[in-house]
Every structure is written in structure tokens, then in C-alpha cells.
Design goal:
It contains 16 helices and 14 strands. By secondary structure, it is an alpha/beta fold. The chain has 2 domains: 3-173, Gcn5-related N-acetyltransferase (GNAT) (Aminopeptidase, 3-Layer(aba) Sandwich); 180-418, 3-Layer(aba) Sandwich (Rossmann fold), CATH 3.40.50. The strands form 2 sheets. Strands 1-2-3-4-5-7-6 form a 7-stranded mixed β-sheet. A 7-stranded mixed β-sheet has the order 8-10-9-11-12-13-14, with helices on both faces. α6 (203-209) links the parallel β9 (188-192) and β10 (214-218). The relative contact order is 0.10.
Length: 420
């Protein structure tokens, strides 16, 4: 069962699950005319607004159904900044499951993903509001929720009573292991995302690669739905997370593909575990900047009073002129959801003055620099990766979005040669 972040492709399935879950849950708890009048199309409009409107305080996760099922998801969870729960940082706005999917552990998995994301966004406490007469409130009690109290509410114009549950310690609800998913079959490929992103940033490449390969994505420590950082954020910590996911997936060796920070991590993993890597793909990882003071200076700016604006300026420079503005605002909102001090620590890890002096990695490697010189010139790159091929693309830093077809093509070509 895959728990992943919702995308625009879920716009028809989420409202269906929403309304069907309402009908099965609230029948007998609310007047029948109110239940019968529930409108799936009305939900579609609402969810379109929520999914399509960039908001660094809203996160939606879905539980995928078996391939070929209708609908393609069995449930979803939505969470973000607290709106209805007093004295809490975060709130789980909704967890809904189809009746056929209940009592299978999906609710716990969705809750873990949602709360992990809240914690990685800086929330230290969270709550949920549930209809007082809803027997499903027992679910939150089992998860350790404390009844904060009851309040008057409104369900589509009908007065009702609501129970408010809170958690002051979110750790017991959080995923204990790295959040990861896999698709397809064949030779394994592990996709490693960049700074303050998550595994979903590989969606377009994953959809292409999974037709021929077993594709594994993960959220790095402190990112997405993985556990928050406990201690220092280091390349070794991230490499251990990749190794953990590979072990859990039963994958002894794989090709590692990393974007930006993910390229640094793929390289570090290969240094530590060369016998577990069949090949490397590194997409616009700024190795040339690692030897300068760039990352330390930017990290200090992110920690300043003007830190949020400094991050916005830094991220804005990663896009090409003319990049889709709505997509850009989505990416910006998602990256800004990581608190400034944590984002700074994650950014600083790419500072590596001695990177060019370290032993070269003699592994088959695909290097894809974007426009600009951040990744380095051919001399630097071939010195670090003597068995590399370089394919430069004229685009901004987010190659996965700006040149998805070209990137997928080069990855396919590289992987085919790797496994001939």
C-alpha cells in the first residue's frame, strides 16, 4: 500500500472518497436529507481550489488502491496549520477512507504521514475536530489524543456538536522509518530528491521509468513524511536513510539518481557503499559551489531576520524565465514550509571545500548539468567521475519539471547501457 502526496491527477478521486465516506459514516448521525444532498461535484470544485492553489500550510496525502481499481485511491488525509484547534501549531483537517478500506491500518498510515509532515514544517502539537457522535472518534483516542473539549459546530448549515482532540507530543504518531514507495519491476533505481523537497518531485520521471524498472522514491530525513531530524543533518545521515530504504525494499544493489542535494547524497552513498551501486545519475548538483563560501553565506542569510525573503530570492533564481508561474508558486510554497533554521542546516551540508580533492568514483555515471556553471566544468566533473558521460540541458535547476521528457530520455538511455 503506497501513501503518497496528492497531485492534480487525484482531483476526481478525492471528492469521490470524501462524499462516499461522509455517506457511510454520517448516515444515522445527521438528518438523511442532509446526507442525500451531498454533492460530489461541489467537492470537486473545493478540492480543485485546495490542490491547485499554492499554500505552504496545506498538505494532502492519499492511500493508493490496487492497480486498476476504481477509484484509484482508498483514502486521504489533509493537514496544515491549526485553524480550528486552540493552542496547537498544526491540525489534521480530515482523514477519510472508503468503507471497504477501513480497519486495515490505512488510517494509521495516513495519520503518520500527515503528522510527520506537520513536524517537518515546525509543528510541535496538533489536533483534530470530529463530530461528537461519530464512533470513529475512538480512532483518535487509541492514537493517544486527549479530549480538549467539545464545541458547537456546523455541518453544511446543520448545527452539531464537535469533539476536539489534541496531541502535545507528536513523536508517537510520526513515522519511525523513512517514508518510501516503490513502483514497477525490473532492475532497481533509487531516486533521491533535493533540498527541502520530497520524493514526489520525481513523479514525472518515476511514471516513465516504472514501465521498465523497479523505481524507489524516498523522503530524506526531515523532509516530507519521513521522521524529523534528531541531531545534525549530514550527508552520512542521508546515506544511512537510503541504505535503510534499500534494506527494507530487499534491494542489495541499485542505480542511484540524485537531483541537487540528492546528487551529493548519491555520491556519498557510493563512497560508503560502492558495492551497492550499479551506477550514478546526478542532476545539476552544484559541486563547483561546494568549494566556495556560497552555501555557508546563504545558510547564514536564511537564519537572519530577513531569512524567509532570502530563501525566496535563492529559490526564485533556480527557475528559468518563463517557467510556469503556478507550478513555481507550488514549489516555492512547499519548500518554504520547512522552518528557516532547519532549511539552513540542510543547505549548509552541501558546503564541501575539499570535494575536488577526494578520490574519484570509478562508477558508470550520468551527469546532467542545467544552464549555468553551478555543477562545474567538464574538467571538474570528469575528475570526480572518470567513467561519466555529460548531457547538458538548457534549463533552470528544476530539470525534473522544466525538461521532463529530455531528462527521462537520458535516464532511460543510461540505464539501458548500464544493464546491457
Amino acid at each position: 500500500m503506497r501513501i503518497r502526496r496528492a497531485s492534480a491527477g487525484d482531483l476526481s478521486a478525492i471528492p469521490y472518497v470524501h462524499v462516499e465516506s461522509w455517506k457511510s459514516t454520517y448516515r444515522g448521525l445527521l438528518p438523511d436529507p442532509l446526507i442525500d444532498d451531498l454533492d460530489e461535484m461541489g467537492r470537486v470544485v473545493q478540492w480543485q481550489q485546495w490542490i491547485n492553489q499554492p499554500d505552504e500550510g496545506l498538505f494532502i496525502y492519499v492511500a493508493e488502491a490496487a492497480e486498476g481499481s476504481h477509484p484509484p485511491i482508498e483514502g486521504f488525509a489533509a493537514c496544515g496549520r491549526s485553524q480550528s484547534v486552540p493552542f496547537c501549531d498544526g491540525e489534521v483537517y480530515a482523514i477519510y477512507l472508503l468503507q471497504s478500506a477501513q480497519r486495515k491500518g490505512l488510517g494509521r498510515k495516513l495519520m503518520a504521514a500527515a503528522v510527520s509532515r506537520l513536524r517537518n514544517s515546525g509543528a510541535r502539537s496538533a489536533g483534530v475536530v470530529v463530530l461528537s457522535t461519530n464512533p470513529a472518534r475512538r480512532f483518535y483516542e487509541v492514537l493517544g489524543g486527549t479530549l480538549f473539549g467539545e464545541q458547537d459546530g456546523d455541518f453544511r448549515g446543520h448545527p452539531c456538536r464537535e469533539a476536539v482532540y489534541t496531541w502535545r507530543d507528536l513523536a508517537p504518531l510520526t513515522n519511525a522509518a523513512p517514508h518510501w514507495n516503490e513502483w514497477g519491476s525490473g532492475h532497481p533505481v533509487v531516486l533521491i530528491h533535493g533540498w527541502t523537497c520530497d520524493g514526489d518531485y520525481w513523479r514525472l520521471q518515476r511514471e516513465s521509468l516504472q514501465k521498465e524498472y523497479r523505481v524507489i522514491t524516498l523522503d530524506l530525513p526531515g523532509h516530507g513524511a519521513s521522521p524529523p531530524i534528531a541531531g545534525d543533518f549530514t550527508l552520512d545521515l542521508c546515506a544511512r536513510s537510503v541504505a535503510d530504504v534499500m534494506d527494507r525494499a530487499g534491494v542489495p544493489r541499485a542505480a542511484l539518481i540524485g537531483h541537487s542535494l540528492g546528487g551529493f547524497i548519491a555520491r556519498r552513498f557510493a563512497q560508503l557503499h560502492p558495492d551497492r551501486v550499479t551506477g550514478l545519475g546526478i542532476i545539476d548538483s552544484p559541486f563547483s559551489l561546494a568549494t566556495s563560501s556560497y552555501f555557508d553565506e546563504k545558510a547564514r542569510a536564511f537564519e537572519s531576520v530577513d531569512g524567509r525573503d532570502a530563501r525566496i530570492r535563492a529559490i526564485d533564481k533556480m527557475f528559468s524565465p518563463g517557467f510556469d508561474e503556478n507550478r513555481k508558486q507550488h514549489i516555492l510554497a512547499e519548500m518554504l514550509a520547512t522552518p528557516g533554521p532547519i532549511a539552513s542546516r540542510m543547505f549548509r551540508v552541501m558546503s564541501h571545500p575539499a570535494i575536488a580533492d577526494e578520490p574519484a568514483l570509478h562508477l558508470p555515471t550520468l551527469l546532467i548539468p542545467a544552464a549555468g556553471k553551478a555543477m562545474g566544468d567538464d574538467a571538474l566533473l570528469t575528475g570526480m567521475f572518470p567513467k561519466s558521460e555529460i548531457r547538458r540541458l538548457n534549463c533552470g535547476h528544476f530539470v525534473t519539471f522544466e525538461k521532463p521528457l529530455e531528462l527521462s530520455y537520458h535516464l532511460h538511455q543510461f540505464l539501458q547501457k548500464l544493464h546491457q
